[in-house]
Amino acid sequence: MSKQTPVPLTFEGEELEGVFVGRRDSQARPTVMLIPTVMGVSDLEIGFAKQLVELGYNGFVADIFGKKFHGAPRDVMFGEMTRLGDDRVALRRRLLAIVEQVRGLREVEDGKLVVAGYCFGGKCALDVARTGVDIAAAVAFHGLLDPPNWPTEKTSTKIVVFHGWDDPMAPPDHVVALGKEFTEAGADWQIHAFGNVRHGFTNPNAHKIGLDAVRYDELAAERSWTSFINLLEETFG
């Protein structure tokens, strides 16, 4: 049975609060840091973390927006996404501070951290990989693929992107550019593109956002999750 523990972090004057999800024995295990969608820490990502615990891993749902934004309305969260996304250098500092915090948790096995994200969180996961920091893998589910305004470092990190081909937020030229970018960085990368699939395909409530470009796709969600678990098995043995 899993337990959830709030994990606070003060970053440059802002109060963040992620959620650690693990087994009750608190034993150190391979861990997946999940970076949420634009809506921030929610039951969706905590649910994914619980599934990971059932498979023998720990999950950590990262708070990149701030504790005061937990449960905030959509228009507020879109404004915060714009604020963070407009300064990718500051966003990089924020992400690396959270990664360092997670790596320091006693329940996180040394050298066995994967960073995965959804939507804007997918972009964040890729930005973590771009820094060259030592993580086992970086994974983006329907992530935003535009590059930052700083150079991608050489990395041996495994990178996997799960992408809806009909996602207008990540058009084909962004997909090609990403492959070129990580080839030049020396990464072990994969891009799984799902035909006739749009943005937000892992979220059963994606349609509630009211945008035609955002739709849940049960088959793509299942295929991407299965491939993700295969990656964890390959990475952690």
Multimeric state of these chains? single chain
Question: What pattern of helices and strands is seen along the backbone?
Answer: EEEHEHHEHEEHEH
Give the distance, in angstroms, between the N- and C-terminal Cα atoms.
Answer: 23 Å
Mean pLDDT score, rounded?
96
Biggest sheet, strands in spatial order?
A: 1-2-4-3-5-6-7-8
The Rg value, from CA coordinates, equals 16 Å
The beta-strand count equals 8
Structural class: alpha/beta
- What is the share of helical residues? 25-40%
Main sheet summary: 8 strands, mixed
As residue ranges, the low-confidence spans are none
The dominant shape is globular
Total helical elements: 6
Strand content: 25-35%
Detailed description of the structure:
The protein has 237 residues and is of the alpha/beta class. 35% of the residues lie in helices and 26% in strands. The chain has helices at residues 43-54, 74-85, 88-103, 120-130, 172-184, 218-236; strands at 2-11, 14-23, 29-35, 58-61, 108-118, 137-141, 158-164, 188-194. An eight-stranded mixed sheet has the order 1-2-4-3-5-6-7-8, sandwiched between helices. Helix 5 links the parallel strand 7 (158-164) and strand 8. The longest helix is centred in the last third of the chain and has 19 residues, at 218-236. The radius of gyration is 16 Å and the shape is globular. The two termini are 23 Å apart.
Give a brief rundown of this model:
By secondary structure, the protein is an alpha/beta fold.
